[in-house]
Amino acid sequence: MQDLNLPPLIFNRRIEIGIENFYKEFSGFALSYEISISKHKRIEDSWIQEDITIRSIGKRKDKTYKGFEIVLNRIPGIVNKRNGKAIIGFNHIFVFKIPRYYPYRLDKVKIYCKTPLLHPRCSSNREMPVCYIVNGEIDRIIGDIIFNVLLKPDLVKPPSLYKDSDWGLNIEIMKWYQDLNPQKVFEYMLTRWISFYKVLPTGIPDITEKIKPKVTFL
Known about the structure:
The protein is of the alpha+beta class.
């Protein structure tokens, strides 16, 4: 694959532009809910923002990025399950590793969840990549990680809705997710995220009665 390698400067710049594009896209998504998030700051090989911080995990001999650590704050995800209830936490760390021949063979990008997360496509083994095929460049990779934590159905792909989909790496959580209604679970997670920034209007239910008894918070 040597002939597919971009020159180091172009390789790195393409990734840096992707990160900048992600922050623009995420800010636009937040604005669609009338939420204004703080602007990120770049310090060397880190992009720092109160909700989502992205840091390089190192460079190769030719100075190209090896990959990145993503630190998520205020993003609700299932971190445990106790007495039939899902425990919701809000701080998560992921690492994704980029092959030298990026952006070719995006399926070779490996994503690892480094903090507890009960997710249909994550193993409890922190050294095992998540069961997810990357379908875009850096901005899409980071966005998909966030919306996977939020359990967005078209990313989790439960077999009840996607006939060609598998059961992932955690069958128990996949069944729990399907039984509760994937779209309603995602809407619930989304309202929990929104509630960090503004008070939800009264009279608008943020969860269904079916989901409410099944979750609690750290």
